[in-house]
Here is the input.
Amino acid sequence: METAEILPEAYAPIEKLADYLKDITTGANYSSPYKRCVQTVQIVEKTTQKKFTFDDRLKDWYLGKETINTMLERITNFYGELGRSNYKSVAICTHGYPINALISLITKGHVARADLENYPDPGVLVVIKDKKVEYLDFNQ
Here is the structure.
């Protein structure tokens, strides 16, 4: 939901993730404007000094508010804009469906509906380099 807050047990993994990110150079940093992401990037910004830009296209998808195709269109639009930039590395804080859509766009160039399931748990950083996906779990 738009107003859902991060859970108390999420603070430690987010702080570990932020510590990991502090020495990684990014050309840009984006986030969903939903509260959970806003709270997450506030923790990350404090540790890393990175500033995040909030982008409505990174909002989560909720049945009844928009169609899955509309969500995919906005994620594809966001990804296309990134593709026209010169960024070598970008940090993105978003939600399950948008994460999986971005993973599919980056690694395969398209999104199938089945690609949207089984997204990573909170506290897991998805790193994509040369179309290879690595999951770094900061929950331990």
About this structure: The beta strands are 28-31, 53-54, 90-93, 124-129, 132-137. The radius of gyration is 14 Å. DSSP finds four helices and five strands in the chain. The longest strand covers residues 124-129.
